[in-house]
Write a structure and sequence with these properties.
Length: 415
């Protein structure tokens, strides 16, 4: 007979199911907020009492908050749910070729503190140690607990081990960045390369990917990074080499040349645009190309022929790599992000013409296949995406220790 004083316990199977349901609810609040309990119930298929119970739990923990209820002529609208921006903070180290951004953010991605410093080539351990110490000091000034720190790197990277294999331009080789950074920070450290981090942000936050099962994200910055999403999960490959473009002889501007990942980055990236413009104007390439790039993009928008030619030549090289991705992976969409997107209208026709000249594309419209991304700062948003993904995984596995294995591609909670 049931005794009213008996403490009810949940079976292991029920606890696991509850954790999965909780992660599903939390995932929707993170990616679609503001969102109502009614919509969460409809999207997850969970009954309303289950959703309400999980939401109440998240509110009690301080992770989620309710928005103010709005009274309209049609009656009261459902109460929307949002991330509680005051719950905890996280840190970000966003490394690029010329500069590195150190930031403290809340869970909505709002920047609370930010500092940009020059990236130092040839001294990865000393440089990353200094970045970590500086960020640790800034995190210490906040009363909220620190969820973790995202480290975004522009190079080939084993995300599981936190090992940088190489970055030729920075002269970094076989560096255990997890060990270096973790020595200075008393919190979880989530490490990812720029292409995959930006792809994760695109998957979690961008409206253009909501209905896609697979896509490839191509990040065009001072180099070119790639993130592959298959079955709405970030794909890592067996050896974390999924952003390598195989060698192929191609015809560009009537000249036959070997096309490799290095050639692609040198010519199709922002670095290639600035180098080409500098060559034409007779000026040497400066180490930090950002001032030049802003000038070139402005001049191209105004119709300057040298700036336009430099931009469109880079677009042709970019197109050859995009054609290789299309042939090799055949995704539903190839999304191009980074600083190239503000001038997308100036380069898209050149990209499509070059792709069509590289191969026969009879299966789909290229104009619908190759689209610009809507996120303005892909790697910065990627840092937030890593933190939220880890938080979702922690919600699904409350007794786990250390960062989510989903960050390394082994256990991933689908978005």
């Amino acid at each position: 007979m049931f005794n009213a004083g008996t403490k009810l316990t949940m079976s292991p199977d029920n606890r696991e199911l509850r954790a999965i349901n909780r992660s599903s609810v939390l995932n929707l609040i993170f990616t679609l907020s503001p969102i109502s309990r009614v919509r969460i119930s409809r999207l997850t298929g969970l009954c309303k009492p289950t959703v309400s119970s999980i939401v109440s739990e998240l509110i009690d923990e301080g992770l989620v908050r309710e928005s103010n209820q709005v009274q309209t002529a049609m009656g009261r609208k459902p109460v929307n749910l949002r991330i509680n921006e005051n719950y905890k903070v996280y840190g970000l180290i966003d490394v690029k070729l010329w500069s590195t951004e150190l930031a403290v953010c809340d869970l909505t991605g709002r920047v609370l503190d930010s500092r940009s410093i020059p990236t130092v080539p040839g001294q990865p351990v000393a440089f990353l140690s200094e970045c970590s110490r500086t960020l640790a000091g800034r995190l210490d000034s906040y009363s909220q607990r620190v969820l973790g720190v995202s480290l975004i790197l522009p190079c080939a990277l084993d995300s599981r081990r936190g090992m940088v294999h190489q970055h030729r331009a920075l002269d970094w080789h076989e560096v255990d960045v997890r060990e270096v950074v973790s020595a200075e920070l008393d919190c979880p450290v989530l490490i990812e390369n720029d292409g995959r981090a930006a792809a994760l942000a695109e998957l979690m936050f961008a409206p253009e990917t909501r209905e896609l099962g697979s896509f490839v994200y191509v990040l065009v910055t001072d180099g070119i990074g790639i993130g592959v999403v298959i079955g709405r999960q970030l794909y890592y490959g067996a050896h974390f080499l999924d952003d390598r473009i195989g060698a192929k002889t191609v015809d560009i501007n009537g000249r036959r040349e070997e096309f490799t990942k290095d050639i692609w980055e040198q010519n199709g990236s922002l670095r290639g645009i600035v180098q080409r413009y500098r060559d034409l104007t007779g000026n040497p390439l400066a180490y930090d190309i950002n001032p030049d790039l802003d000038h070139i993009l402005t001049m191209a928008r105004q119709g300057d022929p040298t700036a336009l030619w430099s931009l469109k030549q880079a677009a042709r090289y970019l197109a050859v790599g995009l054609a290789s991705i299309y042939r090799g992976i055949d995704p539903e969409r190839i999304i191009v992000g980074g600083e190239i997107t503000p001038v997308w209208d100036l380069v898209v026709d050149e990209i499509l013409r070059e792709m069509e000249s590289q191969d026969c594309f009879h299966q789909t419209s290229l104009r619908g296949l190759i689209v610009p991304g809507s996120l303005r700062r892909g790697t910065f948003e990627g840092g937030r995406a890593l933190i939220l993904k880890d938080l979702i995984y922690a919600s699904c596995s409350p007794n786990r220790r250390g960062p989510a294995q989903g960050i390394s591609g082994k256990r991933i909670v689908p978005v």
